[in-house]
Specification:
- The chain is of the alpha+beta class and 591 residues long.
- The protein folds into three domains: 20-111, Nucleic acid-binding proteins (OB fold (Dihydrolipoamide Acetyltransferase, E2P), Beta Barrel), CATH 2.40.50; 146-280 and 430-501 and 529-554, 2-Layer Sandwich (BirA Bifunctional Protein, domain 2); 298-421, Gyrase A, domain 2.
- It contains 16 helices and 22 strands.
- Strands 6-9-10-22-21-20-17-11 form an eight-stranded mixed β-sheet, sandwiched between helices. Strands 3-2-1-4-5 form a five-stranded antiparallel β-sheet.
- Helix 4 packs across helix 15, helix 7 packs across helix 12 (401-418) and helix 13 (496-505) packs antiparallel against helix 14.
- The N and C termini lie far apart (70 Å).
């Protein structure tokens, strides 16, 4: 009879779990060599896996053959160590396994490694593009690994939370139809249908509405979406949404459920109590902060000055539609600082035509660069409008209302960065509500949907469709944290006639509406329920929870700033045969 083969485990413990209670135990560890230090009669090896680092000590006198192997070890060699856990004489309080070490009775090299192109340390010497080229090595570093674990934990919390409320996760198609609204689509040629193309979804919007018609009254999906647009720190060509939709609900119902979900996530992942989440109308956000996603961790809200600044003979103010400013405390407004801030305001990033300053000295005297137009009593009125105190400086812009608010909003954020007013350990959530339904597109001389064409207007604003569409408010809402739009949604149109009216306002003819959205409007003829929903940016949410300002560290294999995957070298050319199969005969080749 054949003997039963005994099989020893590759490892019995991870490199992060051994403690003083394990002293005396025989263990087997496996992992990567983090560091190996040969100190003549002793060789110290830091053995690492995703769970932590354990020190291995090889003593030449006791195990000379193991010592010879240990001396050969290089960084990132994969090894297996069998040995006894002993108490360390010089404990390392900065390491969870720092009270113990392992003295090996066997050491096996499972695989060798080339010298990594950057150090596998928390603080590495590798620049981002190099680390993205060798992303599998970057993932071995604790910061990236922990970011991915945070992402996993957050995703599980979301799934469990929504499942507990009877939501159903449903997958929707990735190959869909291109639509003219929104950002630019990624398109995929169809081999079986020559001359036609799929598009990758910018969101599952119409499909989740069809699920509502189908009676799946609580839907969610953690889903990949795609947009072919310019990239920045919080954008990738492919990104992940927490996509949700509900039937027979009001805006209040949706806000309550998903505010609860966000509070649950922040509490469970990073131990932060968000408290009551305030609400602000879009109109107030623009009026007081110049942006529809205000960062409310710091003040610097806008003060409008038309009533005290106009009519004084200063043409810059007199000819402006709006004179508005912010008040900055605790800054010595020297001539050098005035020049720096004026140049900043006039920079391409801010876009202001100039900057006017007013300062309240510590002795209460008020000074300004325009005091020839504003005597002391008039400057005092400006200071009183800001409720300025001694030592405060007021920075004022003037011009067309919308452009001036936007420029001042950008200046506000730039100054907050310079003055370190944004505490990364403080989280200020906010619901922004009552967005405009439409925004005017100057280039195309028509209205665009501010969110998307399926957003429902307030019923009391419907009369404005025929007279002043730009003033119609949408039943839309965004969830903002620390000046970042984490998510947003709306109550949807569920009536065919109302949807057709909306498409008409957006410039669709009856024929083009049928071509693009006929499937949705036909579905509305079969008893579509009132419904609404929202989507959160999963990458952005993880970025905020991780207290970072870039989403790339929270994505396993991200694209770089040019939208390229430098690891697998994508995008890449395809063969002539592939193009022929796809019925594509004209290609622009790289020079």
């Amino acid at each position: 009879m054949e003997k039963k083969r005994t099989r020893e485990k590759i490892r019995t413990h991870t490199c992060g779990e051994l403690r003083i209670a394990n002293v005396g135990e025989e263990v087997i560890l496996a992992g990567w060599v983090h560091k190996a230090r040969d100190q003549n009669y002793f060789c110290f090896v830091d053995l690492r896996d995703r769970y932590g680092i354990t020190q291995v000590v090889v003593i030449s006198e006791k195990t000379p053959e193991i010592y010879e192997i240990a001396k050969q070890l290089g960084r990132e060699y994969v090894i297996r160590v069998k040995g006894k856990v002993v108490e360390r004489s010089n404990k390392n309080p900065d390491r969870e396994t720092g009270d113990i070490e392992v003295v090996p009775s066997a050491l096996t090299i499972l695989n060798t490694s080339k010298l990594p192109p950057f150090t596998i340390e928390d603080k590495t010497d590798g620049l981002e593009d190099l680390r993205m080229k060798f992303r599998y090595l970057d993932i071995r570093r604790a910061p990236i690994r922990n970011n991915l674990i945070l992402r996993h934990h957050t995703g599980m919390l979301i799934r469990n939370y929504l499942t507990s409320l009877d939501f159903v996760e449903v997958e929707t198609p990735i190959l869909i139809k291109s639509t003219p609204e929104g950002a630019r689509d990624f398109v995929v040629p169809s081999r079986m249908n020559p001359g036609t193309f799929y598009a990758l979804p910018q969101s599952p919007q119409t499909f989740k509405q069809l699920l509502m018609v189908g009676g799946i009254d609580k839907y969610f999906q953690i889903v990949k979406c795609f947009r072919d647009e310019e990239l920045r720190a919080d954008r990738q060509p492919e990104f992940t949404q927490i996509d949700c939709e509900m039937s027979f609900v009001t805006q209040e119902d949706i806000i309550k459920i998903f505010e609860g979900m966000m509070k649950h996530i922040f509490q469970e992942v990073i131990g932060v109590d968000l408290g009551e989440v305030p609400r602000m109308t879009w109109a107030d956000a623009m009026k007081f902060y110049g942006i529809d996603k205000p960062d409310t961790r710091f003040d610097l809200h806008f003060v409008e000055l038309n009533h005290v600044a106009k009519g004084k003979g200063f043409n810059v103010f007199d000819s402006a539609e709006l004179v508005v400013g912010i008040c900055v405390s605790g800054v010595d407004l020297t001539r050098k600082k005035i020049t720096e801030w004026t140049d900043l305001a006039k920079s391409k990033e801010i876009g202001a035509s100039g900057l006017v300053w007013v300062k309240v000295e510590k002795n209460g005297q008020i000074k300004s660069g325009v005091d020839k137009f504003f005597p002391p009593d008039e400057l005092k009125k400006i200071a009183e409008a800001f409720e300025a105190q001694p030592g405060d400086s007021m920075l004022i812009l003037a011009g067309p209302a919308e452009a001036t608010r936007v420029a001042l909003g950008r200046l506000r954020l730039a100054l907050a960065t310079e003055l370190k007013l944004r505490d990364p350990n403080v989280f200020k959530p906010l619901w922004v509500v009552d967005f405009p339904l439409l925004e005017w597109n100057e280039e195309e001389n028509r209205y665009n949907a501010m969110h998307h064409p399926f957003t429902s207007p307030y019923p009391e604003d419907l009369a404005l469709l025929a007279t002043d569409p730009g003033k119609i408010r949408a039943r839309a809402y965004d969830f903002v944290v620390n000046g970042i739009e984490v998510g947003g949604g709306s109550i949807r149109i569920h009536d065919k006639d109302m949807q057709m009216k909306m498409l008409n306002v957006l410039g669709f003819t009856k024929e083009s509406a049928e071509e693009q959205f006929g499937f949705l409007m036909r579905a509305f003829e079969y008893g579509a329920p009132p419904h609404g929903g929202l989507a959160f940016g999963f990458d952005r949410l993880c970025c905020i929870l991780g207290k970072e300002d870039n989403i790339r560290p929270f994505i396993a294999f991200p694209k770089n700033k040019e939208g390229k995957d430098v690891l697998i070298k994508a995008p890449a050319p395809v063969t002539d045969k592939q193009l022929e199969d796809l019925h594509i005969s004209l290609v622009v080749k790289n020079q």
